[in-house]
Amino acid sequence: MNSRQRRGVILLVLSVLCALGAFAGVLSVISDVKSKVGPEITAYRVRTGVPPYTTLTRSQFEKVRMPERWLSSTAVTDLDRIRGKIAVTALRKGSLLQSDMIVDRPALQPGQQEVAIMIDAATGVAGKITPGSAVNVYATFEGQREGDPAQSKIIVTNARVLDVGRITALEPQADDRNRQPTEAVPITFALSTIDAQRITYAESFAQRVRLALVAPGGGAGVPATDRTYELAKDK
């Protein structure tokens, strides 16, 4: 082996050693980063914006992997935790789901049943009635016979709201040409059997059904003498 060949071998060996050193350095950096970042864990990110007080479903969230040490103690890592929950505030797209963003959906009490009716979005809800609210339900009826006065009645007092659905556009009924298309919201109540009958009757036969929000602690009820109103009897 001449001197030129020896120099070539030496350079080749040095190149291999440099490559091994660089590879070892990369591995060291990766190991250091992993030791600082730590193991990854599953979290959930809001896929699309979720309005407040909306019942939560799996389709509203997407799975992401993140270093465990970067997540707060309130981060939701198991999507089963949203079962039976509602959003307590508006959930923005891209936000990580936290346990303090959700609460239990109001539950039925013994002897109650869920009843859902459509309420005019403008006159009945106005964005202020949410799950857990207590409301009085008003209905206006035409006179039973020609010439009889129209009446406004409080048909249910202190009805507890379980859920507020999405606004839905309604088409006018075929036999009501003068009525314009409107928007309504499905409202689910927790009611006794008799109150469920009253509210479904009003939805079917009343000219208009309205909700009145009851102030917290104001659930004393309404006297029977004050539950029916006629303009002619107003003093």
Notes on the protein architecture:
The chain is 23% helix and 30% strand. The strands form three sheets. Strands 5, 6, 7, 8, 9, 10 and 11 form a seven-stranded antiparallel sheet that branches. A two-stranded antiparallel sheet has the order 1-2. It has helices spanning 3-37, 121-125, 193-205; strands at 40-46, 61-67, 85-87, 102-104, 113-120, 134-141, 151-164, 168-170, 182-191, 208-213, 228-229. The longest helix is centred in the N-terminal third of the chain and has 35 residues, at 3-37. It starts with a helix and ends in a 6-residue tail after the last strand. With 235 residues, it is an alpha+beta fold. It folds into two domains: 40-104, Type Iii Antifreeze Protein Isoform Hplc 12; 113-233, no CATH class. The protein has three helices and eleven strands.
Q: Which strand-content bin applies to the residues?
A: 25-35%
Mean pLDDT: 78
Q: Give a count of the beta strands, DSSP E runs of length 2 or more.
A: 11
**Main sheet record:** 7 strands, antiparallel
Helical run tally? 3
Kindly report how far apart the N and C termini lie: 124 Å
Task: Based on Cα principal axes, name the global outline.
Answer: rod-shaped
From the helix content, strand content and strand pairing, which structural class follows? alpha+beta
Q: Which regions have little confidence, pLDDT < 50, spanning 5+ residues?
A: 177-181
Number of structural domains:
2
Radius of gyration: 32 Å
- Bin the helical content: 10-25%
- Helix/strand order: HEEEEEHEEEEHEE
